[in-house]
Amino acid sequence: MTRTVLVLGGTGEARRLAEEVHPRRRVISSLAGRVRDPKLPVGEVRIGGFGGVDGLMAWLADNEIDEVVDATHPFAATMTASAAEATTRLGLPFLVLRRPGWTEEPGDRWHWVDSIHEAAEAVKSLGERVFLTTGRRDLHAFMKLDKYFLVRSVDAPDELPPRSHVVLDRGPFTVDGEIDLLREHEIDVIVTKDSGSRMTKAKLVAARHLGLPVLVLRRPPLPEGVAHVATVAEARDWIMRDSGAE
User: Fold this and answer.
1) Cβ–Cβ under 8 Å, residues 71 and 174
2) Which of 47, 50, 67, 243 is 20 to 30 A from 34 in CA distance terms?
């Protein structure tokens, strides 16, 4: 009987993983539903939350899931914690797929922070024109700052700081394009998360080229004891580990 794997995702890694194991496994990909027009993976797709740990446990049991791979965004800490607890309580195999974070290079002017509120506090002394690339759900932390904000997101934010300009766009971005954007808006500091995404790394190279400081939000830690890998190939091999010559 074909085993069923739930892939928690929405990331590029989650989509590639679904492609790698489908149709040798029944793949159900779960998307949070926070992006209005998401890129859909192959296989079956569900969109929306589960209703916490108990809701996730019930869904896993009702759908006869054999194993779970969490390939969500590195900052989706609540989903990862819920998945870790639910699979532990049900005795299901669980793996976290997390791409590596970004690495500082010579010429970078990075300032690491542990929370979005710490980033809002730190930006006060680093610049007056801020490029915010932390996602529309984190804008609340910057609402009271008297700065100019260039905000980039996939979907339009519900609320914005008073002096804001919004760019609706989705990566991949180019270094030349990012340099042009930073110069056009006279940006003097960037705020971002350590997502590790190749599609959005160009802004860091552009910042290095222009000598701009970058506030980088550290990733939340993984739940203690969970198995984790850094590549799609490793996750694929974990899913197919009992397939023999398959």
Assistant:
1) no
2) 67
pLDDT in tens, 73-86: 999 999 999 999 99
Confidence of residue 18 (pLDDT cuts 50, 70, 90): very high
pLDDT digits (tens, 9 = 90+) for 208-228: 999 999 999 999 999 999 999
What would the DSSP string read from start to end of 55-104?
Answer: HHHHHHHHTT--EEEE---TT-HHHHHHHHHHHHHHT--EEEE-------
The C-alpha atoms of residue 62 and residue 189 are separated, in whole angstroms, by 48
CA distance 100 to 241: 23
- Assigned token pair, 218: 């550290």
Could you tell me which of 5, 89, 90, 71 has the C-alpha nearest to residue 32?
71
Q: What is the DSSP string of 5-60?
A: EEEEE-SHHHHHHHHHHTTTSEEEEEE-S-SSSPPPPSSEEEES---HHHHHHHHH
Q: Is the pLDDT of residue 35 over 80?
A: no
CA dihedral 216, 221, 226, 229 (to 10 degrees): 10
Amino acid identity for residue 156 in this structure: A
What's the half-sphere exposure (Cβ side, CA atoms, 13 Å) at 114? Answer: 1
Q: For residue 56, give both structure tokens.
A: 């996730």
Q: Considering the entire predicted model, what is its pTM?
A: 0.90
> Within the chain, how many helices (H) and strands (E) appear?
7, 12
